[in-house]
């Protein structure tokens, strides 16, 4: 059970937000949820959550608010928009913004929140919904130390690692860089696997070697053997969101004057996946594009 008396709000009940809500309830927090589609929110009544009728009423009834929405315009609307959170904010309101958005937008929204007399920190998430349910997420936090202290109990219920990256804006900057790397590495893995299979190598042999050398990385141990090489493609972080995050990295790099040659190549493959209707599948579903381009099936061989 939680040792915190904080009243928690959570806005956005997609895959990640729903998993976080379940974990917070399991940890004993007093939780109020809001989702644009009310039927999704109402499912949490049976689990012990309260459901807010709108964003201002949620803000009035809680102290700490997690926002877990899809993109920069959603964050601006939820926090600053008409009938948004600031309309119901009070002296103790702390917004913990967990969405993956443009760092510049996060900075602008945070500044407006603070100018209005309230508090906001960015705490984007590393991990998938299953890890949220287990309390094993990673939070990349951009916050004033006193705000992180206020949020730490709730964050700790959800995570195995809270990394304070610096002041406001540094958490989301770190998240954009993290996703840039993880998605580019995953695509390199897929291309290498396609090359090896076409050359006649057994995919399991390749995995055994690659995970034992300097080539080792997380997708080789998780998504590629569990999803791609089995052809199962379970639901997860979508290719559509991965493509969106690559756009965030491109915008950030353009603003700061840093070349990202590898990103340009990776994003082209994801753009092809979007045009082929693969956007709702998990990010590793871009393997289907690699298969078509290379003329090879990325699968474990059938057992006799």
Assess the beta-strand content as a share of residues. 5-15%
CATH homologous superfamily of the largest domain, by name?
NAD(P)-binding Rossmann-like Domain
User: Quick one: CATH class of the largest domain?
Assistant: Alpha Beta
Strand order of the largest sheet: 3-2-1-4-5-6
Average of pLDDT:
96
Which overall shape is indicated by the principal axes computed on the Cα atoms?
globular
Radius of gyration: 21 Å
The biggest sheet, with number of strands, parallel, antiparallel or mixed sense and barrel status, is: 6 strands, parallel
Query: How many DSSP E strands?
Result: 9
Examine the coordinates and then state which fold CATH places here, giving the name of the CATH topology of the largest domain.
Answer: Rossmann fold
Instruction: Tell me roughly what share of residues is in helical segments.
Output: 40-55%
The low-pLDDT segments are: none
Termini Cα gap: 50 Å
Summarize the structure.
By secondary structure, the chain is an alpha/beta fold. The chain has helices at residues 15-26, 38-42, 55-61, 72-80, 103-115, 129-133, 145-158, 170-198, 203-210, 218-221, 223-228, 239-256, 261-275, 287-294, and strands at 7-11, 30-34, 50-51, 64-67, 94-97, 119-122, 125-126, 137-142, 159-166. Helix 8 (170-198) runs parallel beside helix 14.
């Amino acid at each position: 059970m939680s040792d915190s008396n904080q009243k928690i709000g959570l806005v956005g009940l997609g895959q990640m937000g729903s998993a976080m809500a379940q974990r917070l309830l399991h940890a004993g927090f007093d939780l109020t949820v809001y989702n644009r589609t009310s039927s999704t929110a109402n499912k949490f009544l049976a689990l012990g959550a309260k459901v807010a009728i709108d964003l201002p009423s949620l803000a009035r009834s809680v102290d700490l608010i997690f926002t877990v929405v899809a993109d920069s315009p959603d964050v601006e609307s939820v926090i600053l928009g008409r009938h948004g959170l600031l309309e119901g904010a009070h002296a103790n309101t702390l917004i913990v913004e967990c969405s993956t958005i443009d760092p510049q937008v996060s900075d602008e929204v945070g500044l407006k929140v603070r100018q209005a007399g309230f508090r906001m920190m960015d705490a984007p998430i590393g991990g998938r919904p299953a890890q949220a349910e287990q309390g094993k997420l990673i939070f990349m936090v951009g916050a004033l130390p006193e705000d992180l202290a206020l949020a730490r109990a709730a964050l700790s219920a959800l995570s195995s690692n809270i990394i304070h990256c610096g002041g406001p804006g540094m958490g989301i900057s770190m998240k954009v860089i993290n996703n840039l790397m993880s998605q580019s590495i995953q695509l390199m893995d897929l291309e290498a696997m396609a090359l090896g299979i076409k050359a006649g190598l057994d995919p399991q042999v390749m995995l055994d070697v690659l995970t034992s050398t300097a080539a080792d990385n997380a997708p080789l141990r998780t998504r590629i053997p569990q999803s791609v090489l089995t052809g199962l493609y379970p639901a997860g972080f979508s290719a559509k969101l991965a493509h969106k995050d690559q756009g965030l990295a491109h915008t950030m790099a353009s603003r700061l004057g840093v070349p990202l040659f590898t990103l340009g190549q990776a994003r082209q493959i994801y753009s092809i996946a979007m045009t082929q209707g693969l956007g709702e599948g998990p990010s590793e579903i871009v393997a289907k594009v690699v298969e078509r381009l290379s003329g090879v099936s990325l699968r474990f061989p059938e057992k006799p």
